[in-house]
Amino acid sequence: MKNRVFLTLSMLVAMVCASCQKGNNGIDGEGTISPYFFTGILNPTQLQIHPISLSGVEHNTTLQVTLTGKFYTPYNSNTHDEFETLARAIGDLPQKEGYVHATPADNLTISTSIEKVSIVAVSKYNDTHPEGSSLNDIATLSYSFFDPEFGKNVHSVSPETTRRDIRQTPKITDLSPIRHPALGFRQYTRLSKILEIEAFVMYLELTAPPSVPTQRISVLLQLGDGRELRGEVELNTATPSTLP
User: Using one digit for the tens of pLDDT, what is the confidence trace for 89-98?
Assistant: First the structure.
């Protein structure tokens, strides 16, 4: 049986460093050096949706979208060759001068772009959004992504100056394709010679309140390689202040 464990950054670094190739990195505090800008690439095969809460208050219309798949890094001899293939495919070409990373888990992205996000009310959400209708008009996204010009203007950067931008779109209908989205880790599964990772890629907020106590919502991501990933979640927003 696969052993699924909550992942912290230190655990990820330990797992990656366990198979690091000697001479390519400094794990004892001086950082790691790699010819590649990205230190890990996730090839997503599943999508999950998690309701989140902040400061002990449940935000039932705020969701965390995560992706799961095999994780490739240049520091692992079992995944190095596949990492190089994926890196080249997304424009991360090896640079002679190299990049300096604080840890082997600094710059993490996925193997393709996110071209489109669609949200659907699987069950009734409110009077203007019945079962089967799109919720894109009341949804906002927040996510981080890497500078698309990293290959031209971010050579030999220190960990403190690695560039990330954060964008929030007023509506999903205004979303431009997301190139090189940044990832944050939730958990992993140890396979025989590789890690399967679940990592969050974006947050989703529905700006209009529901009119029913329980809703089921579907999220669809259309990827740049032609694949589609879909996930569903059931929410219970039955509180005296939100029900009619």
Answer: 999 999 888 8
